[in-house]
Amino acid sequence: MLYKKVVCAITLLCFCIACHVFTCGIVLWYPKSGTDCAIALTIAVNLIKSQHHRGQDGIGLTTCIYKHNRLSTITAHAKQKHGIDEIHKALHKYLLHQSEAPIAFIGHIRYSTYAGSDICYCQPTTHVDAVHNNTMTIAGNFNITNINAVQKWLMEHGVITATTVPSDTEIITALFNYFVHQEPADNIDIVRVVQSTTALLDGGYVFVGALSNGTVFVCRDPAGIRPCFYYENKTYYAIASERHAIVCSCGCTFDDIQELKPGHVLVLSQSAAATCVLFCQTRAHHHCIFERIYLSSAEDPDIFTERKTLGRLLAQRVLAALDYDTTDTIFTYVPHSAHASFIGMIEEAERITENNVHVEHTLITKQKKRRTFITATDKRQKVVSGAYTINPDVIIGPQTTIVVLDDSIVRGTTMRTLLGQLIAQCPKRIVVVSTTPPIIYPDGYGIDMSQIGQLVAFQALATLIQKTESQELLDAIAITACQNPATRSTAQYIWLFYQQIGQVRLEQQIAELLRPNAHDWSGDITVIYQTIDGLHAAMPTHRGDWYFTGAYPTPGGFSMFNRSYLQWYTCAGDARAY
After folding, report:
1. Does residue 575 lie within any of the structural domains?
2. Other CB atoms closer than 10 Å to residue 508's CB: what's the count?
3. Are 462 and 431 in contact (CB under 8 A)?
4. Are the C-beta atoms of 328 and 400 separated by less than 8 Å?
5. Does pLDDT of 20 surpass 50?
6. Tens of pLDDT along 204-217?
7. 256 lies in the same domain as 382
8. Are residues 352 and 368 in the same domain?
9. Does the pLDDT value for residue 562 go beyond 90?
């Protein structure tokens, strides 16, 4: 057979089970007019390749062909990023035998956390309903805080049964499919479908899909939590989660690219002009700041500038901690995503001191190109312990101070391991610097940190609450969360106490928690975090800062916070809190 030698899995018109999604990436290529299939496929593949950093556990690409008044699809999946070349070959062979040109290529890049990493968990997914003669392909970068309520709604409407345990992607696909069936088969109003579907959802999302009538669409959540950009020229549309992917793949400039506005759906059809329609009431925009700090590529000049500014704003506090004496001080950073911030910190430090500082870019070497803070909990420690090594060629003496910049300190797993390795070199002092403020609040919108008890900054805050004999505050939050699971006040209680004790005191407590216990070393560890004001100064147009402030953009965020807090308070385990 044609595909026997292909290492990726090929699925033809089947519904492939997919898992809960985190920080993934989406791709859509759509022709306006006749375009060479090979060129079109290459563009779609390059859009995926340019976003490989968004997903280390799976990729997928679907070819959508509309013929005989129906949608026909073939999907290729692969577990690892290098599998995209095999996907390219497989789909190219398939297209050589087709008389019709594709109406779209839909792609997806995936991270796994709670579910497995098998091919069967990859997107896009294609659902075929023989009864209604309906085929629908969908992919998404999404995280829904009320997914259990949506599942219950589908059960009440007879769409799924109580005997099944559907994944989040299955639930979303079933929901879209349900509302597609409410439309006339020959005149599906995709805007109405998106309105009805998303009205039941709370969370962050970008969905891209193709319907049986040949309509292709992409929609974005009304708070703009998850990112989406598109480029349009005379012959096609290119859509992706990041601007730089479109620039790399389409030969355009960053200024040519538009952002899909929050709460809008872009509808593409062979029989009508493209439309971009507001499908729900507008909200204050809360673009995920972690996209800018960590997830998106710094090849985007705006993101590079923002990260560099974050580092620049930290330089004064770092120098103050060193008494403005950088003698015998080594500056370094980890991971690679902190490089732009590191440049900003060093440039500002040298401007202030009017001296060059000692920089060691390779003091800490990352052996695996894997994002450790988004790795599944049961694998995180193993991944971290083998991911980093200290360069033996860098001389660290007993009078050496090491300043290490990290883009974020989430659970402290990575930093605690690195501190142990640095302490083994017997320096005088270690200064840990974070480009983000302390992460006190859990996330339910797409970043893998929903368990509040695992956040080292919250651990430090809870310790300080207990030290100040304010245990009744922790009790009161638990009681309030039980009485009103959707209340906002619990998150506000945490914020008020944090404001009361101040960031410096919290940093001191975090330094104590990060200090490895297995080392007989009397040196000092100092922790310096970015301030909230500094964060906003570096990213003035992005206000999705709920990880640091508790200002969740949807009601589901507060419900998730309360569940997460109660899990920690009652020692109920580490299950996801939504």
Report:
1. no
2. 15
3. no
4. yes
5. no
6. 999 999 999 999 99
7. no
8. yes
9. yes
Instruction: Give the domain range for residue 308.
Output: 291-569
What confidence category does residue 540 fall into, taking pLDDT thresholds of 50, 70 and 90? very high
Question: Can you tell me the distance from the alpha carbon of 177 to that of 193, in angstroms, rounded to the nearest whole number?
Answer: 9
Q: 578 pLDDT exceeds 90?
A: no
- Looking at the structure, do residues 202 and 329 belong to the same domain, yes or no? no
Nearest to 306 by CA among 404, 396, 215, 435: 435
d(CA 439, CA 409): 8
Q: Are residues 524 and 380 in the same domain?
A: yes
Among 285, 309, 333, the domain-final residue is: 285
Contact 75, 33 (CB under 8 A): no
Average the pLDDT over each of 5-9, 355-359, 444-448, 568-572 and give the range with the smallest value: 5-9
Going from the C-alpha of 319 to that of each of 312, 314, 360, 534, the distances in angstroms are 12, 9, 17, 16
**Sign of the C-alpha dihedral computed for residues 453, 22, 166 and 121 taken in this order:** negative
* pLDDT band at residue 429 using 50, 70 and 90 as cut-offs: very high
Contacts of 291 (CB under 8 A, 6+ apart): 227
pLDDT score recorded for residue 520 = 85
**Locate tokens 């990575």: which residue?**
414
Query: Domain end: 285, 308, 337, which one?
Result: 285
Tell whether 165 and 227 lie within a shared domain: yes
b/e sequence 270-298, b meaning 16+ C-beta within 10 Å:
eeeeeeeeebbeeeebbbbbbbbbbbbbb
Other Cβ atoms closer than 10 A to 487: 17
Quote the pLDDT of residue 377.
Answer: 53
- Residue 99, CB half-sphere, CA atoms under 13 Å: how many? 2
540 and 391 share one domain: yes
From CA 317, how far away is CA 172, in angstroms rounded?
A: 46
Same domain, 350 and 423: yes
- For the stretch 328-373, pLDDT in tens is 999 999 998 999 999 999 999 999 999 999 999 999 987 655 555 5
**In-domain check, residue 4:** no
- Look at the chain and report how many structural domains it folds into: 2
Instruction: Tell me how far CA of residue 281 lies from CA of 126, 208, 416, 428, 456, in angstroms.
Output: 30, 20, 45, 57, 37
